[in-house]
Design brief:
This protein is an alpha+beta fold and 227 residues long. It has helices at 9-16, 84-94, 164-176, 196-214, 217-224, and strands at residues 35-41, 47-51, 58-63, 73-76, 100-101, 107-111, 121-135, 138-139, 142-147, 188-195.
């Protein structure tokens, strides 16, 4: 006789409430080779949206500077955090001291041929590399990935397969998107473009940083209910 399935606490909560995109959505069993991704902005957005960490709702961060817009889908990997391990990894790779994580979930850019008209969605992405960005002495990595099963980009496995012009567009956006018009001193720098294996390492460090700060979602639910 087959025993009835007993849902986990997280599954029960999911039947009653919308999951928080950062804390309540699993990164996926195949991570880091395939990761669940929450999309905040799309290339047609003239306003930069980002997740409100407290509520999990998408909020307006700021209008995009000048006429530049993000050339790809852009969001973050759930249940990740750029903290001590990510900062130390960045410091080791750049041979710098005093690098911290920026305290946010790990950012990710998704390449796809499809026109996806809005954010606030989840998708499955395959990391192929990343940009090592430092924002005022804080590690702010940007993982580069392709949409799973995408007809054009889905077969790419390494960032070396990306045209250099696409990488330059991404670098230009991230080097300027936080600067106010007329700013002479740039606040961000990109020190490296790294490959898939290094992207996996950054993802793993960010998952460990998250686990250290927040624990498991199941543990959080149990603590909340006093179990």
């Amino acid at each position: 006789m087959t025993r009835p399935h007993t849902p986990s606490l997280g599954q029960l909560m999911g039947l009653l409430f919308r999951a928080h995109p950062w804390h309540g959505v699993p990164v996926g069993q195949d991570a880091p080779s395939i990761v669940t991704t929450y999309i905040e902005i799309v290339p047609t957005d003239s306003v930069k949206y980002e997740i409100d960490k407290e509520s999990g709702l998408l909020k307006v961060d700021r209008p995009q500077r000048y006429s530049n817009v993000c050339p790809t889908l852009y969001g973050f990997i759930p249940q990740t955090l750029c903290a001590e391990r990510v900062g130390n990894f960045c410091g080791a790779k750049t041979q710098r001291t005093g690098i911290d994580g920026d305290g946010d979930p790990l950012d990710i850019c998704i390449l796809t041929e499809k026109v996806i008209p809005r954010g606030d969605i989840l998708l499955q992405a395959i990391p192929i590399g990343g940009l090592r960005m430092i924002d005022r002495n804080q590690a702010d990595d940007k993982i580069i990935a392709v949409l799973q099963d995408d007809a054009v980009y889905g077969g790419w496995q390494e960032i070396a397969q990306c045209p250099s012009t696409l990488i330059e567009r991404l670098k230009h956006y991230f080097l300027t998107y936080k600067d106010a018009p007329g700013t002479l001193e740039r606040r961000c720098e990109i020190t490296h473009v790294y490959d898939r294996q290094e992207a996996y390492e950054v993802i793993q460090h960010s998952r460990e940083d998250y686990a250290e700060k927040f624990g498991s979602p199941e543990g959080q639910f149990a603590a909340l209910l006093g179990r």
